[in-house]
Input
Amino acid sequence: MVDPAHSDRSPATMVRGERARLRRVYDRYTREGRFSTRWGGNPATGFISETRWALMRAALDQCGVHLPSAWILDLGAGQSDDCERFRLAGGRPERIIALDLLDEFVRTSRRKHPTLRAVIGDAACLPFQAARFDVVHQSLMLSSVPDRTTRSAILREVRRVLIAGGLFLSYDARYPNPCNKETRPLRGPELAAELEGWSMEMRSLTALPPLLRTLAPVSLPACRLVEGVPFLRSHLLVVARKPG
Output
């Protein structure tokens, strides 16, 4: 039972507060034109996605994941574009679940990808039984959760809902974004501490996005060249396997 004196910190209240915070953030992104002006139509978007997915497909194959029979959960799925990539890679749409806290994203997801299963839910308190999923994926979601306690709760839920031997695929920023104070980078040591005992491979990728947005319209080979410089790679791809 929740102590009335601390009812403002109840799970339901915290979810409402986080949903309200995210709405404010994304409303501001829309007003500022952050998505349309920075990424809309820029070849850098496709370059980043194709590079990441090539590595993820290789990791799934190397780990022996049979996508047609795998249950897949995408956290902070947004409009489910990554879920669609899982489907195109061989996943069955009825086994791919897109979860997002914002109902507007879920509605858009259902319109764009009607064969996929999009649900509203809190990643820190997942509405699924333990050991349900073969793969849990997140892309740029954890870095949008600046509160360390909430982030830890999300990773605890990842541990709970994955089967023994299941995979957690994480793609996120490893550097702070000086233009966005609503985010906090997700670094390797934090994940290693939260997933202690798991086998884990980490790889830096994605050259600094402002640099890619400048180079990609001119030369994709130049993008590949700058991604060869380790300190220019601003993101981290993690493939972590649950023990057992």
In short: Confidence is low (pLDDT under 50) at residues 1-7. Residues 132 and 240 are 17 Å apart (CA to CA). The first strand starts at residue 72 and ends at 75.
